């Protein structure tokens, strides 16, 4: 059972992330001609051994272009599926295929078919946190770093179905000023749990801190409310994707930043700006799925070539167009 506070499995899955472990991971990856991609929410040891670390948009772009026979995707299952959709000729492995996503589970392909039938002329915009089958029913995918740009690129007279995250949808609606956007009522249980009351309490006790807020958070609306009411200066509140947070960390003039997102993010932020004190708004906000990619699981993955990610070719073909549109819109994002 994972630790209920951190979501981290006991003893890193039975293998300590020592220097020898890291050297063995790198040796095995080289032997397989594999590149390791890790999301910003992975355990610090997994981030440190990866060839590339980034947000979901940056990692999708890397997956589409990386020169390797295999991609080892240390993230959650929909991210590895997206890599497979973009690079069907490569083998894509995930250290633990049980690494799902509560947000991706909040809409099924059948539910989307029914919703589309109600609005047959609408453009369907799906967050990348969706299954390959849902992507196959989508016009354009987006991530948190380009959702506003994606919706802005759509003819203002066309209705938009935005799914599945209600908080990101509310952010997009606010930023684009569109009133013809319909939003699915899904949420990520980790981000929805970072609420406005916690944010208010933390910003009261750290009055000089900047606030970096992921748009999936339940507190995003509260953050903008606090700024609107003058409780927190407006220029101190930023709604950012995980990649955007790293760029903002390098640019901040503050000595302290309150971070509202999954706690794995703190590792890259502290590396990007070691002189800044980064504090989690909710230190229990750990994604148990992301943390399934333990050092033991990564070692097994490279040793046994498991778990391989498959996407049925017809579904992949339908999904590819919407994902390719996504990676062509918005900032290049951050990966290293
Ligand atoms: P990013 O798109 O910011 O990487 O976020 C992905 C995610 O799963 C957030 O929970
Ligand atoms: Fe999914 Fe939430 Fe975990 Fe991100 S943090 S992978 S949205 S469950």
Molecular structure report:
- The protein is α/β, with parallel strands linked by helices.
- 40% of the residues lie in helices and 14% in strands.
- The protein contains 15 helices and 12 strands.
- The strands form 3 sheets. Strands 2-1-3-4 form a 4-stranded parallel β-sheet, sandwiched between helices. Strands 6-5-7-8 form a 4-stranded parallel β-sheet. It has a 4-stranded parallel β-sheet with strand order 10-9-11-12, sandwiched between helices.
- Helix 8 links the parallel strand 7 and strand 8.
- Helix 3 runs parallel beside helix 4.
- It is globular.
- The mean pLDDT is 91.
- 1,3-dihydroxyacetonephosphate binds next to loops.
Shape: globular
Chain-averaged pLDDT: 91
Largest sheet entry:
4 strands, parallel
- The total tally of domains equals 3
Can you give the helix content as a percent range? Answer: 40-55%
What's the level 1 CATH class of the largest domain?
A: Alpha Beta
Write the topology of this structure:
Elements: H1 19-31, E1 34-39, H2 44-49, E2 52-54, H3 56-65, E3 70-74, H4 77-86, E4 91-93, H5 109-118, E5 123-127, H6 132-135, E6 140-142, H7 147-152, E7 160-163, H8 166-176, E8 181-183, H9 189-192, H10 196-205, E9 210-213, H11 220-228, E10 237-239, H12 242-251, E11 256-260, H13 265-272, E12 277-280, H14 295-304, H15 313-327
Helix pairs in contact: 1-14, 3-4, 4-15, 10-11, 12-13
The structure holds 1,3-dihydroxyacetonephosphate (13P) and iron/sulfur cluster.
Brief account:
This protein has three domains: 10-100 and 289-310, NadA-like (Rossmann fold); 104-187 and 314-328, NadA-like (Rossmann fold); 190-280, 3-Layer(aba) Sandwich (Rossmann fold), CATH 3.40.50.
């Amino acid at each position: 059972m994972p630790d209920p506070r951190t979501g981290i499995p006991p003893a890193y899955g039975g293998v300590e992330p020592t220097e020898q472990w890291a050297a063995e991971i790198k040796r095995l990856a080289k032997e397989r001609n594999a590149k390791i991609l890790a999301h910003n929410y992975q355990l610090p040891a997994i981030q440190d051994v990866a060839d590339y670390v980034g947000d979901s948009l940056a990692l999708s772009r890397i997956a589409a272009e990386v020169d390797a026979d295999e991609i080892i995707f240390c993230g959650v299952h929909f991210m590895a599926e997206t890599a497979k959709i973009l690079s069907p000729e490569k083998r894509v492995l995930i250290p633990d295929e049980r690494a799902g996503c509560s947000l991706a589970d909040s809409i099924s392909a059948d539910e989307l078919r029914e919703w589309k039938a109600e609005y047959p002329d609408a453009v369907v915009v799906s967050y990348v946190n969706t299954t390959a089958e849902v992507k196959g029913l989508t016009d354009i995918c987006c991530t948190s770093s380009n959702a506003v740009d994606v919706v802005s690129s759509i003819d203002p007279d066309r209705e938009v179905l935005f799914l599945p995250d209600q908080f990101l949808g509310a952010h997009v609606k606010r930023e684009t000023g569109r009133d013809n956007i319909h939003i699915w009522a899904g949420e990520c249980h980790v981000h929805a749990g970072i609420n406005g009351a916690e944010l208010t309490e933390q910003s009261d006790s750290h009055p000089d801190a900047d606030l970096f807020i992921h748009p999936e958070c339940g507190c995003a609306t509260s953050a903008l409310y606090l700024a609107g009411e003058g409780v927190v200066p407006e220029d101190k509140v930023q709604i950012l994707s995980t990649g955007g947070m790293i760029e903002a960390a390098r640019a901040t003039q503050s000595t302290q930043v309150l971070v509202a997102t999954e706690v794995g993010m703190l590792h890259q932020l502290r590396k990007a700006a070691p002189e800044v004190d980064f504090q989690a708004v909710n230190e229990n906000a750990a994604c148990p799925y992301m943390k399934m990619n333990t050092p033991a699981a990564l070692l097994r993955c490279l040793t046994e070539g498991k778990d391989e990610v498959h996407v049925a070719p017809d579904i992949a073909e339908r999904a590819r167009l919407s994902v390719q549109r996504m990676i062509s819109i918005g900032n290049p994002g951050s990966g290293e």
